[in-house]
Amino acid sequence: MIAIGSDHAAFQFKEDIKAYLDAKGIKYQDFGCFSKDRTDYPIYGEKVANAVASGECERGLLFCGTGVGISLAANKVPGIRAVVCTDCYSAALSRRHNDANILALGARVVGIDLAKMIIDTWLNAEFEGGRHADRVAMISAIEAKHCGNS
Fold it and tell me: Which of 64, 85, 88, 146 is catalytic?
């Protein structure tokens, strides 16, 4: 199951992506927002990140105007590796090398057709492990040290 969320700036973008996921038979849970009424992206970044970090959802998709703000909020949740991508190459390597568990896209930056290609690439890429697992472990160790979990 994929967790998805957006702020008001990306509400319609999220709805278009939901229709795309429906057409592909990909199951998701929408954590909001649920209208174009002004809201704050950290709320939805945290909700999606919590769902992924807890194991309730396998991965997450987040959308705001640029993808940046909502990814910053998500990355504050321990265990989250959220990335903003604007191309398929970065999306693929974020999964293969960094085991990214949340993809953020900017509705004001990436067109919907490119967004679909980026999402497909990201969802289909698998973590390669090996030397990359050591690096992800190093990232987790930094997180643990700063969160008081060491």
Answer: 64
